[in-house]
Amino acid sequence: MSQKSLTPLRAQYLNIKQRYPDAIVFFRLGDFYETFDADAELTARELEIVLTGREMGKGVKVPMAGIPYHALDNYLARLIGRGHKVAICEQTNHPSDNKGLMEREVVRLVTPGTVVEPGLLDGKRNNYLAAVAPGPDEAGIAFIDITTGEFAAAQIPLSRLEAELERLRPAEIILPRDSGFQPKIKTPVTKFDERDFEPETAAETLKETFGVSTLDGYGVAQLPLATAAAGAIISYLKETHKGTVAGISHLSTYSVSDYMALDENTVANLEIFQNATTRAIAGSLLGVLDVTRTPMGARLLRRWLGQPLLNLEGIKERQEAVDWLFRNHLVRLEIERWLKSFADLERLANRIRSFTALPREIIALKRSLEAVPELRRALNNTAVNKLKNDLKEHTDLIALIENAIEHEPSGAVGEGGVIRAGFSAELDELRDMATGAKSYIAKLEAEERAKTGIKNLKVGYNQVFGYYLEVSAANLVQAPERFIRKQTLANAERYITPELKEYEAQILSSRERLADMETAIYRRVLGRIAESAEALLALADAVARLDTLTAFASVAAENSYVKPIINNSADMRITSGRHPVVEDSLPLGQFIANDTTLSADEG
Questions:
Q1: How far apart are CA 553 and CA 291, in angstroms?
Q2: Which of 295, 252, 304 is nearest to 273 (CA)?
Q3: What are the tens digits of pLDDT across the range 26-55?
């Protein structure tokens, strides 16, 4: 169809859609995000909203479906949860003459593995984006959770690749566009430019991201396929986030030989993460063990269940901690009580680093940090010394937040009620001006009533006319000539005076300055906290480990589990063994314990 027959809006939309053919384009029109054509039909079906149509040129009527802009997160969650990608296209500015077509551009491409909005995330599980770089005998695999900053890569045998993907259960997998590999796991797959998977290109991408000249300190210098996967992830994030990738400060490498490989059938048959019949967490091993009190602990529990240790020393270290927590009931209860005070420190640290954390989240951070000394006091045994040492106190951050942020701040920055009085003398001065405006208005109203004799005269404000003097119809004859008529109502007239408009300009100017200054000060506070982001992530890891070990101890105490003796022998003897998942599904006392003996000499 000729471009001449299309409206400018239609032409603009088609130009944008052409650049994002695999995504649903949410096209901002006023207070709505609209979708068109096949996107509209898909959106209407998935979100169960009305499919309508719109004239967009001579003889051109296209399907259309839209959502209110303020409901974006709710609808976005449903689309992303079903594996779709969504390109958010915003109105970016008005033409200078306030006429013509509004400019629009895609500000972010939201995919299952790149979600950052708290409302779209499950706090109990990581939202991994994985990349796979297949080779002849090995594969590079990298994964990242951009909400926590966890970023790791490995070069593994091809035979272990499917098991590793099963362990990670990523929200999205990216592969080279020319790759023939098709993962068995049911996860959205995105084909990405194969050039970004070239080891040399990927290495340069990583070096640029970390600001280094060599990757020797990151463990991937001699692992070309791991480098390829890690670099491709960064390139993909730059594309989806329009060039801005915050919160990625390190890359770690790991070896799959450090833990037991669990393939898809093993995970399913053992019902580790979900019940075989209902597919729910209830009725699985995770459902039995997850009494964690923090989001970080819940996510770590999932990782530990998917990565059974093979290292005897590591197993015994965990056992000793669980044993001490198991035997000290009152201490365990105290620890559980304080663990409930913790916010999601991992995700919050990254929101602080990206300057998106809300004031109430900063207060939640303060409450979390205030609980650390209490946990340290409770951990008074050598079995938990490492945990205690890793729980670092942050009195400096507590003091900063205490002095800077209101105890019950407003929901958004710039509305007032975020920065505490006394933290900034300049901000306090502006606040005094704003407060003085209220008393000035009250004083002016009293003076004008006295001058005019109009007892019900009042000073009001609206966004169209600003401040005004309102005189009822019965008293119009008493309105002096210096009153300038601005608006006529059914039962009153509204006036202005030069003095009132002059003071209005001062008030509005001070309010704008107040909002700008509060925003600037809040960002400075976030910047100071962000300097400790790595330390906060280390604290989050320590809290997660304590939470998970405490959960093990609590479940053991509740179910009368016993501590097994672990050694390097190939023999196994279980006396009165109980299957935790089966036992949990039966009425109390109905499970019949069994003995099991396996010997390396048998068979």
A1: 10
A2: 304
A3: 999 989 999 999 999 999 999 999 999 998
Q: How many other CB atoms sit within 10 Å of the CB of residue 319?
A: 18
545 in the same domain as 477:
no
Angle at 231 between CA 108 and CA 163, to 5 degrees: 100
Single out the residue of 31, 174, 24 nearest to residue 109, CA to CA.
24
Q: Can you give the residue range of the structural domain that contains 494?
A: 425-528
Burial 320-338 (b: 16+ CB within 10 A, else e): bbbbbbbebeebbeebbeb
State what percent of residues in the chain have pLDDT above 90.
76
What is the separation of C-alpha 89 from the centre of its chain, rounded to a whole number of angstroms? 20
d(CA 125, CA 169): 10
Contacts of 107 (CB under 8 A, 6+ apart): 88, 89, 90, 92, 242
**pTM higher than 0.90 for the full model?**
no
Same-domain pairing of 248 and 145: yes
Q: Are 172 and 111 in contact (CB under 8 A)?
A: yes
Q: What CATH number is associated with residue 25? A: 3.40.1170.10
- Long-range contact pairs involving 566-574 (C-beta distance under 8 Å, separation at least 24): 566/312, 566/315, 566/316, 566/319, 567/312, 568/312, 569/600, 570/599, 570/600, 571/597, 571/598, 571/599, 571/600, 572/596, 572/597, 572/598, 572/599, 573/597, 573/598
Same domain, 66 and 168: no
**Cβ–Cβ < 8 Å for 127, 144:** no
Nearest alpha carbon to residue 340 among 546, 119, 116: 546
Number of domains present in the structure of the chain: 4
User: Token pair for residue 164?
Assistant: 């590793």
Q: Return the DSSP state at 392.
A: -
Residue 294 in contact with residue 550, Cβ under 8 Å?
A: no
Which of 79, 110, 141 corresponds to the end of one domain? 110
The answer to whether 577 and 594 are in contact (CB under 8 A) is: yes
Burial category of 511 from C-beta neighbours within 10 Å (exposed 0-12, middle 13-18, buried 19 and up): middle
